[in-house]
Amino acid sequence: MLMIGPAGTGKTMLAKALPGILPPMTRHEAIDVTRIWSTVGLISDGESIVRRRPVRAPHHTASAVAIVGGGSIPRPGEVSLAHHGVLFLDELPEFGRGVLETLRQPLEDRTVTVARAHSTARFPAGFMLVAAMNPTARGDLPSPNDTAGLREMERYLGKLSGPLLDRIDIHIEVPRVPFATLRRRAGGATTAELRERVLAARRAQRERQGEQPNAFLTGKQLNTLAAFDGEAERLLGQAMTEMRLSARAYDKIRRIARTIADLGGEEAIGMSHVAEAVQYRLLDRQF
């Protein structure tokens, strides 16, 4: 997920709150994370196994080796240390272009391969990427009449390559929060309520397709497990044509629509689910 919005709108807060609604790790996942963390000495004294999902947030000055792993003696990087957890990249365009491009393989394959003259090491990298960015380097959102500001926004967003953006499932805008909303003391779902919705959606997925989550469904599996009705299919076809979406984006929209239906407790995927999933391809619409 990539969140785009002016400075101070709560993007970092949302990213930090995300782990609170994720389901607990299974024993198999906990063992995987413990094995990776133990190789770099991250296991705390007296702790035999990692029980909480990892949350890693490297600074934008981190090198490619620090992010994806490597070194003369290959060791896992942040994408592997975030396995079965969250990798949060704040101020995404401020990361080096070469660093960002190294994310393409792990986002696609969920593994990282580090080749050296004497050996090749492969590390797991099944992480959830959560990124945040301002619309411009200054942190503000230019007005529709600010031609120079709009050019600056386009230049700043241009630091992110199309192939990388295509691999990010959800692009959303995080607007400024109105004063009345900030003053409101109640309303909205609590973390506990959202967590229950997530757990219910995961239970529905397990009953339908076993331990494989929606994010890992192949195109062939989606044809069966995420079939659309006629109206939804036509809407998706229209979006694909008008927004010139890739085949990768096509499968991502189907996975997201399947998940939206699961979160709503619905087995059938309808037009509203597809419409919402298409709305999450914000950068595909603008650029």
Overview of this structure, please?
The protein is 46% helix and 11% strand. By secondary structure, the chain is an alpha/beta fold. The strands form three sheets. The chain has a five-stranded parallel β-sheet with strand order 2-5-8-1-9. A hairpin with a 4-residue loop joins strand 3 (69-70) and strand 4 (75-76). The protein is globular and about 55 Å long.
Explain the layout of strands and helices.
Elements: E1 2-4, H1 11-17, H2 27-39, E2 55-56, H3 64-68, E3 69-70, E4 75-76, H4 78-81, E5 86-89, H5 97-101, H6 104-109, E6 111-115, E7 120-124, E8 128-133, H7 147-157, H8 162-166, E9 171-173, H9 179-183, H10 191-209, H11 219-225, H12 230-243, H13 247-263, H14 271-279, H15 282-286
Parallel strand pairs: 1-8, 1-9, 2-5, 5-8
Antiparallel strand pairs: 3-4, 6-7
Helix pairs in contact: 12-14, 13-14
